[in-house]
């Protein structure tokens, strides 16, 4: 009898240990998914916009110092307009009450603003509150998409996003190099195959966008901060629902796609900001 009881106790102990181990493994995996989603959907857009904004600020500063304050509108006016249009579009998307949109302010010396979007929102609405996160970062995406479309229609060439989005695994360092090589090769190929008139138009428009459009102001990041906590909560809730309904695989694919697009936009933006800085430097000597 004692032997039988000991055997039962030993068997139950093994089963309990296995269950505990499975729980710990699944628990660790669950936490990893939540952390990964926060890194991809919160930290990645924030940091990429920060880096590009820093580069864009250098470009705008160089524009003012080398070509004069009015060059912000004469040269960078298109970038300012797309910048403000991004804020406005995302404000409408998240149901904010947009009271005033000024894509270009020709009297910027009096107010200090090249353009502006005034909007209000219901602080009781989680959707409108988290919308601030995207409204503040919007110019990073609208400027990137504008340059992408210019490259597609004027140079007849564009990046193959799906080549990287369809991957089910995360990027490694060598693949980051491949992404950057594709961006530069796409740019060079477009310049090689397009006619001179389209190349000139493209470079002018790209410089007008990149020289000012990517520079996010302190107020823009204050808007981002107003929505970041709500967005974090929503991401965590979505992560929990993903685990409950076993949607880890499609969510992983979606995360990888979003992350790759963010990196592509980051590298593309830096490339064109550098080009704008070089062209501004050349214009300053003419």
UniProtKB/TrEMBL annotation:
Q: Does the keyword Membrane apply?
A: yes
Give the UniProt keywords, A-Z: Membrane, Transmembrane, Transmembrane helix
Write out the transmembrane intervals: 33-52, 130-150, 194-216, 228-247, 259-285
Protein name in UniProt: Uncharacterized protein
What is the species of this protein? Companilactobacillus versmoldensis DSM 14857 = KCTC 3814
